[in-house]
Structure formats: C-alpha cells, structure tokens
Amino acid sequence: MAVQNFSPALPASAGSAPYPMAQPGYGKRSAPDQLPVHPDDFALLPPRERYVAGFIEHLPEGAAMSVKCLAKQIPLYGQQAIASALTALSVAGHLRRVRCAVGVGDEVRWVFRTFWSRTARDNEWWANRLTPGAPQPVRAPLPVPVTASVPDSAPPPVVPPQRTALEPAPEAPSPAYLALARLGTVDNRLTLSAADCSALEELAERWFARGASADYLTGALTAGLPVEVISPPGFVRGRLIEKLPPVLPSVPTPPPVGTLVPHVMMECTDCGAPGPAAALPDGLCRSCRRPKTSTASAPEPPAERDVTALVAGLRDLLKAP
Predict the structure, then answer these.
(1) Could you count the other beta carbons within 10 Å of the beta carbon of residue 62?
(2) CA torsion, ordered 31, 33, 37, 40, to nearest 10 deg
(3) Alpha-carbon span 145 to 149, nearest angstrom
(4) Is the Cβ–Cβ distance between 176 and 205 less than 8 Å?
(5) Mean pLDDT score of the chain, rounded to an integer?
(6) Helix (H, G, I), strand (E, B) or coil at 88
(7) In 10 A of CB 306, how many CB atoms?
(8) For residue 186, what are the contacts with CB-CB under 8 A and spacing of at least 6?
(9) What are the pLDDT digits (tens) for 217-269?
(10) pLDDT tens digits, residue range 55-98?
(11) On the CB side of 179, how many CA atoms lie within 13 Å of its CA?
C-alpha cells in the first residue's frame, strides 16, 4: 500500500538553487513568543493555504517574501493564487506586512518586512507586538498578607537589626581613561600617571564620541614619536587637540533580526496600503475587506477562489473548539 505524504510543503530537490534572500533588513521575520512546532499547526487551512504556509515556515530569516518571488519558487500556483493565499494567511493570523523606519534625522529610510507566526494570532496580539508603546495587559496586584492580631498582653516582637546600606562600588574606568593608561605599555616614552590620565580623560573622550576606537587613538598618539619626550602629559595633550578626528555622518544600519524599531506601520497584505494596526484588522484595509465583484464575463479559474468566502470559512474554523 502506498504511503501518503502529509508534509505541508514538498521538499526541495538536492540540486535546486537556494531560495533568494532579500536585502539586509528586509524580508521574512519570525514573530516572537511562538508555540512549539506541532503537526497540526496549519490543519485548519485549506489545501492551497496549508501548502503555502508550510513553504513559508521553512524559509530562512530574511528570505524574499514578494508575491512574484514566492510564485517563482512554488510552481504549483501563479502570482494571483499566491496573493490570495497570503491574504487568507493574514486573516488566519499567521502573517502581517509592516513598514519600519530605520535611521535617524535625515537618514531615515523605510524597510518592508513580512512577520510570520507559525502559531495563529488574533488582531490584538499582532497590534501589541508590532506597535511600540501599545497598552499591555495589567496584572492585578498581589494580595497583601494579613497577619494575625497580637493580644495586648503579648510582649512586643523583637525586630532584628537592619543591615546598613553598602557603600556604592567604585565606577569602572572609562574607555578613554584605559586607553591613556595603556599608552606606556605601547611606548614607555608616553607613560602617564593616574592624575595625568584623569586630567586628559575629557580630551580623549572626544575621540570616542567621534567614532574613534581605542586602537585608533593609541596609534595616532604613538606614531612618529621624537627620540625623547620631555613631558609625556603635555605631549599627549597637544596630540589629542591637534589630531582630533573629524565628525563623520552617521550611517544608518538595519536593526538586528527580530528587533522592532519605534516607527512601525502595518501594511495591507492584499494591496499594500499603509496604516495603523487598528485600521487594518486581519491585516487588510477597508477596501480589501469588502466583497469583490467580478467584472469579467469569463468564469474564474478553478485555482482562484473567492477570497471573501474563504475568509469567512477561516473565521468559522478558528472559532471551532
């Protein structure tokens, strides 16, 4: 008897090309706080959506998530079918598309990400995870323990002696102080005392504020030394002032994987219209949630089903016990 394969997505052949990755900062991002993997994670979905969900689940972080790219890698369905499947997965609570602002000042740019959750989530969960500063559930305060009353004739309780507050630990030396203190280990002509390092620390901190590292500062101060340095503190002070590096513009870098930046805007899974999470329930804007009327006289292909009816069916399945 033939053994059926219940895998949600077909395994890739050994000679297939690797899945294309998006640019750094873009592409697939796994949502936090997911439940462990279970064979029935996508059991409530129709066959097409279950297949696409299984395929997305196995994609690596940062994989390209455009409809065109997914349709190219899933030959069973075309772009329109993939777009309808993604819409259904958004309604089922597995997917949300967002726009994130990366950078500061005039260097802000928008990156587009698709957050994926193997565990189906409702709109409130997505709004709390994707909207910084969203109100979190308030926990009830712990009950105050009630102690038994002590009779008047009972002796007063003995209060144990309280510990005196410990003195604060001394602060660790700053990177600027340590860099100055280590100059003597690189070249003994620039040996500084503790008082010298404290006096020059503020000048050295300006180097670090402009992006210089400890190695860069050490190399600039010890390069081309004269045969004899009469006053190491005065010599180091002069070089700290004369060779102060210029101010470099900050280069925006994408945040680490899984990190959400403060400026986040959700995007309609169907048409891409941006908006706050409250205006995009199920990840869809108002126009995309309306029933779509077909203007073409030709019947719809069998692979392309009514998204509105599919959405209603998914909601009923999610409500089932």
Answers:
(1) 18
(2) -80
(3) 12
(4) yes
(5) 75
(6) helix
(7) 14
(8) 218, 222
(9) 999 999 889 999 999 999 999 999 999 988 865 544 555 544 444 467 788 88
(10) 999 898 888 888 998 999 888 899 999 999 999 999 999 999 88
(11) 25
- In the chain, DSSP finds a helix count (H) and a strand count (E) of 11, 5
Task: Give the H/E segment covering residue 270.
Answer: none
Taking the C-alpha atoms of residue 75 and residue 79, their distance in angstroms, rounded to an integer, is 10
Q: Answer yes or no: is pLDDT of 286 > 50.
A: yes
Q: What is the pLDDT of residue 170?
A: 64
Strands 95-102 and 27-30: unpaired
Write out the DSSP string of 95-134: EEEEEEEESSGGG-EEEEEEEE-SS---HHHHHHHHSTTP
Encoded tokens for 154: 């009972």
139 by Cβ neighbours in 10 Å (0-12 / 13-18 / 19+) ranks as exposed
Domain residue ranges in the chain: 27-132+260-291+305-314, 175-242
Q: Which amino acid is at 220?
A: A
Element spanning 274, H or E: strand 274-275
Any residues with CB less than 8 A from the CB of 82 and at least 6 apart, and which? 52, 67, 70, 71, 74
Beta carbons of 61 and 28 less than 8 angstroms apart = yes
86: number of CA atoms within 13 Å, CB side? 29
- Long-range contact set of residues 171-180: C-beta below 8 Å, sequence gap at least 24: 174/201, 174/205, 175/208, 175/214, 176/201, 176/202, 176/204, 176/205, 176/207, 176/208, 176/217, 177/201, 177/204, 178/214, 179/204, 179/214, 179/217, 179/218, 180/204, 180/236
Question: Which residue type sits at 126?
Answer: W
What is the pLDDT, as a whole number, of residue 293? 54
**CA 248 – CA 210 distance, rounded (Å):** 7
